[in-house]
Amino acid sequence: MEDLDRQIIELLSVDGRMSYTDLGRATGLSTSAVHQRVRRLEERGVIRGYRAIVDHDALGLPLTAFISVSPLDPAAPDDVPERLTGLGDLEACHSVAGVESYILKARVGSPGDLEDLLARVRAAANVSTRTTVVLSTPWEGRPVPPERRG
Amino acid sequence: MEDLDRQIIELLSVDGRMSYTDLGRATGLSTSAVHQRVRRLEERGVIRGYRAIVDHDALGLPLTAFISVSPLDPAAPDDVPERLTGLGDLEACHSVAGVESYILKARVGSPGDLEDLLARVRAAANVSTRTTVVLSTPWEGRPVPPERRG
DNA sequence: AATGAAAGGGGTCATTG
DNA sequence: CAATGACCCCTTTCATT
């Protein structure tokens, strides 16, 4: 990973809509050179896409929760992620090393919606759940800068 | 929140670099109408920014972990988030209702880096930690669609 | 609040070094 | 792999409704 690529990634992590012209000015490359590098980063899967960062409160989804999941039948084949896909309200699904098997991140509108979601999760994947409600989020989604080599 | 705004937000959540022209085509609005709406969504703070989504493996940060944090001195003023800001490697900090006080999300390069980070977290905020290592991430950062009204 | 037009700048590609 | 130049499309603004 070249230094120029890391610079470009860092800039696009902070402002995903920055123009190739501005990226060029910031990196000392021409517009088309930057464009070429970005295309290659996208093709290689280093840059996976671009997203608008949205305020969940404004969207009517003020309640965030982490749901830890344990399969009830340890003998059953583990297809929990597949069963939870398309359930809605779930932003992430991590397989973890710990007491439980998965950690889910949920965004809902109200405690009632969370109650509904938990019922749907348990039913869809045959699991028990342990839920941790988020009270506030001092910071989130902060881009972790790419590793620098000495 | 109007339906057109929700449509625009959904489109920009999936492709944060979509052009105003394409947004117009997708929503049936003129380019300038879309542009005006996006500007207002940004000004109101509904759209908080745009980010490139980056593959952490490719950046040399293949190890993700959730760190649950408990203050050692419950009498001390709670400024954990401030103390952890700028520590690096931390992507998020949530204040939570549960046995522990905070959940942190970390991205590091190796178990050794995680060990270092945990020491820094404990020292900086005077806390004990409980860490859950992520083994794999079936999905993450999936945009939760804005609430639809019946 | 949306439209359409006009002016300027950026994206895109082929070519060259 | 980067730079240049040309062309086209998009962005941006403004007057109009």
From TrEMBL, chains A, B:
One GO term describing the cellular component: cytosol
Q: Does the keyword DNA-binding apply?
A: yes
Q: Which domain of life is it from?
A: Bacteria
Alphabetized, the UniProt keywords read: DNA-binding, Transcription, Transcription regulation
Q: Where is the HTH asnC-type domain?
A: 1-62
Gene Ontology molecular function, alphabetical: sequence-specific DNA binding
| GO process terms (BP) | response to amino acid
> Keyword Transcription, does the record have it?
yes
Q: Which PROSITE patterns match?
A: HTH_ASNC_1, HTH_ASNC_2
InterPro entries the record matches? ArsR-like_HTH (IPR011991), AsnC-type_HTH_dom (IPR000485), Dimeric_a/b-barrel (IPR011008), Tscrpt_reg_AsnC-like (IPR019888), Tscrpt_reg_AsnC/Lrp_C (IPR019887), Tscrpt_reg_HTH_AsnC-type_CS (IPR019885), WH-like_DNA-bd_sf (IPR036388), WH_DNA-bd_sf (IPR036390)
| Lineage, highest ranks first | Bacteria, Bacillati, Actinomycetota, Actinomycetes, Micrococcales
Q: Tell me the organism.
A: Oryzihumus leptocrescens
- Full protein name: AsnC family transcriptional regulator
